[in-house]
Design a protein that fits this description.
467 residues; alpha+beta; 13 helices; binds adenosine-5'-triphosphate; binds manganese (II) ion
Amino acid sequence: MDTIIRTRIVDLLKRTDFGAMVNVKGWVRTRRGSKQVNFIALNDGSTIKNIQIVVDLANFDEEMLKKITTGACLSVNGELVQSVGAGQAAEIQAREIEVLGECDNTYPLQKKGHSMEFLREIAHLRPRTNTFGAVYRIRHNMAIAIHQFFHERGFYYFHTPIITASDCEGAGQMFQVTTMNLYDLKKDENGSINYDNDFFGKQASLTVSGQLEGELAATALGAIYTFGPTFRAENSNTPRHLAEFWMIEPEVAFNDINDNMQLAEDFIKHCVRWALEHCYDDVKFLNDMFDKELIARLEGVIKEEFVRLPYTEGVKILEDAVAKGHKFEFPVFWGADLASEHERYLVEEHFKRPVILTDYPKEIKAFYMKQNEDGKTVRAMDVLFPKIGEIIGGSEREADYDKLLARVEELGIPMKDMWWYLDTRKYGTCPHSGFGLGFERLLLFVTGMTNIRDVIPFPRTPNNANF
Ligand code: ATP
Ligand code: MN
């Protein structure tokens, strides 16, 4: 076969220099036609679109033609021609075909219309489907959008550790990291495990958040963000929780809660706008296949100003709804941690746009949040989104050494884990704020997928770590 430099399909479909000889490589999606002419839809992952390969059967070896089956990998040399069929500008009149990889009829993606559950069981092959190709291309583009947003605003990308000996949010939901022999665990006279001889000489875990280390950086570099894997051993089998997910955590010196809300709103809008601008074909595909309101929802979020509402008022709205006969599965009252159904009621039924809920009761929020004068609430902010509920959680941080120390002691957090964090307040403390965005929650919103397992290539959830 002649050597011609390969062109990606996304680039080929833009070309108009008909008559040129080109090479494409990709996987067969479908093959149809008559005894004389066959049409192969070839996809190479560079776009949701296929290129059509027109094959005059008389010009090719019969044995080779037999190997062109759904899923097979081909290299095709041919002439770029203007397409007569509707829906595409260019197609390829095949001159030479090489079957790089055959694919027999045990290939599970023979026909279309598999359930999402089935596709999860073949997560090693699902990138070959239109749906997952679209989702993973969008995932990539969102990562770029995030770095671009922060870089342009002078934030530094700061790497916080994945293995940590401090628990940011409170114990119980961390994965332990150990090299101890679990078959021969040494315990002391009280029955406690002695970690002195473990790899790190103390108990260690996978991080649940990079925030505490992020604060160290923000109070030196000014504005930073983290973007890395995050682990939570929460046994909550919901469509919005993963055991391993990616989190983006900006942290900014001198920002108060209002600056923090504005940053969160600008940030999400930037990401959504980016998806519409850079991934339109993929978003449109998902819109048409799964969720006819997806694009309208994305455009809505860009246009609307987010509501800013204190928790106390949010609870009042929810209590009123209950009084008027609205049924929630979980109770609402001042002091309750809101469930996703409550968050979605505020966003989807009451305000019909995103809501930033602020000033939560301190008991249901983390120890580091800035305490309000009322002694009951803290300067927390959760961004609530249609279809998702909480997409961002953040706060202004307690900058006062004595107040923070009092809270740490009140909650019985051991000083051996906290001394270095408290040093930020001891030496040149400053007001600062930040938040965490779950990358996969953002992707749920942007793709319209309804299960978080379908926006990460290889989901880790209770009882599942396959592939
Ligand atoms: P939720 O109440 O939904 O469990 P959270 O209050 O535990 O969230 P934070 O600790 O504030 O969440 O984490 C910040 C962000 O990280 C959340 O707003 C969400 O977008 C994301 N997030 C949290 N837990 C998970 C998870 N298990 N899987 C995927 N994303 C998550
Ligand atoms: Mn949680």
